[in-house]
Every structure is written in structure tokens, then in C-alpha cells.
Specification:
Blueprint (H helix, E strand, L loop, with lengths): L7 H14 L4 H7 L10 H11 L4 H14 L5 H6 L2 H6 L4 H15 L5 H4 L4 H9 L6 H11 L11 H10 L8 H8 L6 H19 L7
Helix pairs in contact: 2-13, 3-7, 3-10, 9-10, 11-13
Keywords: DNA damage, DNA repair
Protein name: DNA-3-methyladenine glycosylase II
GO molecular function: alkylated DNA binding; DNA-3-methyladenine glycosylase activity; DNA-7-methylguanine glycosylase activity
């Protein structure tokens, strides 16, 4: 059964279960305290917002998203599917992002893609479904599953902050690659999403303490 992190209470239950499940996490939790649940809007709008923010500063992404949602109200896959590419471009979207959003909109309209169903699927299967879409990379898929759908086992293996936190927290010699992150997280199934929240909290503690860690992408 898929576990969901839809409330702070859900996350707290999951973190307590994780600490019992893997004693290595106890000192991490003692240092961080309980993480706060991070949530974003679900559905097409949530995925579109993540796509719009790829490889942009928070300020730039926010400005583009504000223009998009002001221009299309309500903002849904049908209006984006029908929108002219040149209009989307004038609002600040790159050609690649326009192509990605229009492809997602077409898949939803044709009912070949159902974003709600992904919340109930195995995390790895849901990740594969999203990354099979042109323009959707692993990080975007995992962020959507975790923050928009509350998937309790989504695992952002490519996130640099989580990688750095695990390197220090588990005493590794080098920062693990995305590929190496998969076996490292096996002990935390089916709560890898809650583990990610814990590791992000640990990273913030380390960053504040040391002031030398690379910034989170």
C-alpha cells in the first residue's frame, strides 16, 4: 500500500517510523527536529510550475509563473494545449518548455496520462511514467511526486542537497551520485519521501553551521 504525506501529522508518523526502522537516522533527527511538510499544488498546474522553474532562479521562475497564471485563468491543460506557442513565448517560456507543456497537455487530453493515478502507483513506476514524457527529467518527476502528490516513497536521488547531507550524515568519503543514491535509500522504503524531508532538514542545519556547502539547485 502506498503511504501518503498529505499532512504534517502524516510526515511526523513517517519520520518516527523511519527512526525506528534505521537507527542511523536517530542522531540526524535529534539534530534537526521534526521537518516541516513541503507541499505544492497538484495536477497539471503543479507539474507545469515545476517545469517552468527548471534551471531558473526562484525570482525568474516566479515572475514567469505569475504571468502565465494571469494570462490563463483558470490555468489548466486545455488552455495550454490550445494556446499559441508565440504567445507562451512572449510570457517568458523557452521553446523547450513550451514543447514540454504542450506535450503533457496533449497526453492529459487524450487520457493517456492520469496524474492522480500516479499518487497510488509504486514510486519507481510513477517516476518512470513521468520521465518517459519528453522534457521531464528525474528531479522534476520526483519533486512532483513528493511535493504535489504527497507520495511517501518518492526519492529525489538527483537532489544535490540530499546527496551532500547523506554523504556527511552517513560518513561517506564522497558525495553519492544519483545512481548510488538508490541502494542507499533501500532501508527507508516505503518512506523514502519522508527520509528526503529529514535529509533536507539536516542539510539546512549543516549549511547554517558550516557555511561552506554548495547551494541547493
Amino acid at each position: 500500500m502506498t503511504i501518503h504525506l498529505n499532512s504534517q501529522s502524516d510526515l511526523e508518523d513517517a519520520v518516527h517510523a523511519l527512526v525506528k526502522q534505521d537507527p542511523r537516522l536517530k542522531p540526524i533527527f535529534e539534530l534537526t527536529g521534526m521537518p516541516a511538510l513541503r507541499q505544492r499544488e497538484p495536477g497539471f498546474a503543479g507539474l507545469a510550475a515545476i517545469v517552468c522553474g527548471q534551471q531558473l532562479s526562484t525570482a525568474s521562475a516566479g515572475a514567469i509563473w505569475a504571468r502565465l497564471t494571469a494570462a490563463f485563468d483558470p490555468f489548466d491543460h486545455e488552455v495550454i494545449r490550445k494556446a499559441r506557442a508565440d504567445r507562451l513565448g512572449r510570457l517568458g517560456l523557452s521553446a523547450a518548455k513550451i514543447k514540454t507543456l504542450k506535450n503533457i497537455a496533449r497526453e492529459l487530453a487524450a487520457e493517456r496520462l492520469n496524474l492522480d493515478v500516479l499518487a497510488e502507483e509504486d514510486a519507481d513506476a510513477a517516476h518512470h511514467t513521468l520521465t518517459a514524457l519528453p522534457g521531464i527529467g528525474p528531479w522534476t518527476a520526483d519533486v512532483y511526486l513528493l511535493f504535489c502528490l504527497g507520495h511517501g516513497d518518492a526519492w529525489p536521488s538527483g537532489d544535490l542537497a540530499v546527496q551532500e547531507a547523506i554523504k556527511i550524515g552517513l560518513g561517506l568519503k564522497t558525495r553519492p551520485t544519483a545512481k548510488q543514491m538508490a541502494p542507499l535509500a533501500e532501508p527507508w522504503r516505503p518512506l523514502r519521501g519522508a527520509a528526503a524531508h529529514l535529509w533536507w532538514s539536516y542539510y539546512r542545519v549543516l549549511k547554517k553551521r558550516e557555511g561552506v556547502l554548495a547551494s541547493k539547485p
